Amino acid sequence: MPIDDCPxxxxxxxxxxxxxxxxRLEAAMPASVRLGDFAATRTPPPKLxxxxxxxxxxxxxxxxxxxxxxxxxxxxxxxxRLKQHVAGRTHFDASLAYRMAKEVMxxxxxxxxxxxDAAFRKHFxxxxxxxxxxxxxxxxxxDPLELYLFEAxxxxxxxxxxxxxxxxx
Length: 169
Hints:
14% strand, single chain, alpha+beta, globular
């Protein structure tokens, strides 16, 4: 029985579908755009994902690049999620900036407490500014099972283990 109506078998996903998505993502990386371009708008530059019907909202996978890939993410609403990375004000919205700030300033506070702490908040804001300057490439993936499997597949391929985590809480 397929999960979430995914039309592919495990073997098809492993041998053809995920490798094809990886080739598409790698092909998109030379046309990456500045992540900060999403801070003020929801509509990405047209070259971010060629042939997407609605650039304002699409499901897919994105890779953040600072000379090399540093983070792989997925979203059912990629433009909105990219904007959250650089314009989000909370540890929920800008979770990557939060984790980066926590590396600079480890703490035992709750996440909310850290975000209320002026010293930690300064590091958080600096990490958001850093993220604005890096690049992002994305591909559209509509099938939810392919999308979730591909995130881990691409993170392993690009070795983004410093910032990608698949621990649940």
